[in-house]
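We modelled the chain as a single entity of 118 amino acids. Its sequence is:
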Amino acid sequence: MKTIIALFATAIISLNAAAAPVADMMYRASVSLSAVKKHYDESGNLLATSKYVSDAALPLPVVKKLMKKCPDHQIRLVREFEAEGNTTYIITLENETGYKVVRCAGSSYTVLQSLDKF
């Protein structure tokens, strides 16, 4: 649920700049322009960029992995993160019984959260 809330919050606060404490010594800051969000640390160093993309923009290996692991799910949201030259996709999937949030990075596939519909 936290992941879905974070995805919706990111969409709602797309043009704001914010800094908030994450842990004792870490801060999270982000600035968003033209649907590309940049994530900075407390020193102003760029950590990652992220943006919403369509399912048509997913690379073929990611699509194949989703078709194999979740054949009965439809793609609802795709968020692309780029950090240190690596691209990671956070994908929200839906079927008749619930939702699933997965992370695809390279050849890895991880289920972050599963939610059942009532």
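As a brief sanity check on the tokenised model: The beta strands are 18-21, 27-33, 36-40, 46-52, 74-83, 86-94, 98-105, 108-116. Confidence is low (pLDDT under 50) at residues 1-23.
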